[in-house]
Every structure is written in C-alpha cells, then in structure tokens.
Specification:
Blueprint (H helix, E strand, L loop, with lengths): L25 E7 L2 E8 L2 E8 L2 E11 L4 E3 L7 E5 L3 H7 L8 E5 L4 E2 L4 E3 L9 E2 L1 E7 L15 E8 L4 H4 L8 H4 L6 E8 L8 E6 L2 E7 L7 H11 L7 E3 L7 E2 L4 E8 L3 E8 L1
Parallel strand pairs: 6-16, 8-13, 9-19
Antiparallel strand pairs: 1-2, 1-5, 2-3, 3-4, 6-7, 10-17, 11-12, 11-16, 12-13, 14-15, 14-18, 18-19
C-alpha cells in the first residue's frame, strides 16, 4: 500500500499547492508502518496529507512525530537538471568565461537518495568522489517557454542537493566528457530534507561540512542565473513537469571525500540541513 501520490497524476492537476497556507512548513515524503506518505513538517511534527503533493493535497488530520518515520527523498523527480558554472566566484577561480546561457546536464532519476541515507561508491569504481553542496528548485506546475516574471508561479519550492560526482570518470576518455556517467551512479544525488515553499532569504549561503570541517560557504546571491531566470530559460529547451528537480550548481570549495566513511552536511538558511554518509 502507499499514501504517496507526490508524483503520480500530477500532470493531470496543473495547479500547485497554495503556499500561503503555511510558509514555514515544508513538504516531506516518509515511510511509516510499511507505507510511504506525504505531509507538511512543522518543527518535529508531520501533518499527514492525502492526494497529490503538487495539486490538491488534503490534510488528513493525522499527526506523526518526525522521529517515528524515515524520511524519503521529498519528491520523485522525472528528471534532474544539474547546472555547471553558475556562480561568478567559481568561474573566476577556474579562469573560464561566464556562460551566456545555462550549461547543464541531465542526472539520472535513480541518483535520488534520501536525507540520512548512506551513499556507497560502486564496487566497479575506485577513483575519487567529490561533494557539491547546492540549492535545488522543485517544479510544481508543467511549464514550457515561460517568461522570467512568470516563473515563480511554476516553482513549488526549494530544497538542498548534494550533487555527488565521480570526478575521475569525467575526463577519462579524451574524446568525450562523461558528465552523465560521472554524476549518474545510484544514490549520487541525495536531496532534502524537505521542500520549503519560500526561497532562501536574501544573503543566504550554502555551507558544506565534511567530517566536521567547513569546506564550502558561498552566497546564493552570487548565482549567474538565479532561480526564476533559470527556470524560464530551461523551459525554453524542454518542458518542465511537477516534481522535476533543478540543481542550481555549486561554487567554491568542492573537494574529494577521502576517508573510508565520510559524514557530509549541506545547510542553507531557510531550508535546513541535508545530512548523508558516503562510504568507499
């Protein structure tokens, strides 16, 4: 059985949830009692909902303690779009030109992993793996070729992504940069813990902690293509559907996870902290 309709039938219901109802609560998916459900998390309490997360979800009246459930990825993306070179600071450090349009790849939906999940390097790969703390955008309504000033109506909310990358694969073959493979291993895209309806506040930073040491602390305001512009531009290339996830790209401080067991925390003000373990 399942109470999870966060993605199913969303395209048949084009109107997004009324975010004004509770801008502090975040949408989550969870497992409890052998079922998967959706709800709104406020503090340590989940208000369980029925129906589709993206259209007409209704409060059932049931309440669950956060500690009594296992959080799942907060939605099930049909596609994951991952940006490269989307921050002024990183472009300057790398000595590359800032792009005139978004540079991106598609990350396999099977890379999605839950907050708190243990991510394991595949046995067939023995090379380096890097963390990349990022802001994520979740689409709430189907959109194609929209204007930037309309994009906010199509954004369901914001989350945190760790766009994990098998860096030694990327340029292994000199004839073809292997972006999709390098970022496509199972569970190499944890995100969560929830979906916040409101954008991070002005001045928000992405902060990544690896094994207790701060490795990234960069401002979201440094983004070359900020969220509304990014969604509009991507919608010109492909139709975006409810549940699609856009990883906005990372900035300074990306590094290799060197220990056999690595603890990674990525935090963004207004959203929370995504915690995972990486084992190799």
């Amino acid at each position: 059985m399942t109470r999870d309709h966060a993605h199913d039938h969303a395209q048949n219901h084009p109107h997004s949830y009324d975010h004004a109802q509770d801008r502090a609560a975040q949408w989550v998916r969870f497992s409890h009692g052998g079922e998967t459900g959706i709800g709104r998390l406020s503090g340590d309490t989940i208000a369980v909902h029925s129906g589709c997360m993206f259209a007409g979800a209704r409060d059932t009246g049931e309440r669950l303690a956060l500690g009594a459930v296992a959080l799942e990825p907060p939605c099930r993306p049909g596609k994951i779009i991952a940006l490269w070179n989307n921050f002024h600071g990183l472009a300057a450090k790398l000595g590359v030109a800032e792009p005139a349009e978004p540079l991106y790849l598609l990350k396999a939906p099977s890379t999605a992993a839950a907050p708190g999940a243990t991510v394991r390097r595949p046995p067939a790969y023995s090379g380096r793996t890097v963390y990349e703390g990022e802001l994520g955008i979740v689409i709430g309504r189907t959109c194609t070729n929209i204007a930037e000033d309309a994009a906010g109506a199509y954004i369901f909310g914001y989350t945190i992504v760790n766009d994990i990358t098998a860096s030694d694969i990327l340029n292994k073959d000199p004839t073809f940069p292997q972006w999709a493979r390098a970022k496509g291993f199972d569970a190499y895209g944890p995100f969560g813990p929830g979906i916040a309806p409101a954008a991070p506040p002005d001045g928000a930073h992405v902060r990544t902690i690896l094994n207790g040491a701060e490795r990234q602390n960069y401002p979201l305001g440094d983004m070359i293509f900020p969220p509304h512009r990014l969604v509009a531009l991507l919608s010109r290339d492909m139709t975006l559907h409810p549940g699609d996830l856009i990883a906005c790209g990372t900035s300074l401080g990306v590094g290799v996870m060197k220990e056999p067991v690595n603890e990674i925390e990525v935090s963004i003000e207004g959203i929370g902290t995504l915690r995972n373990i990486f084992v190799q």
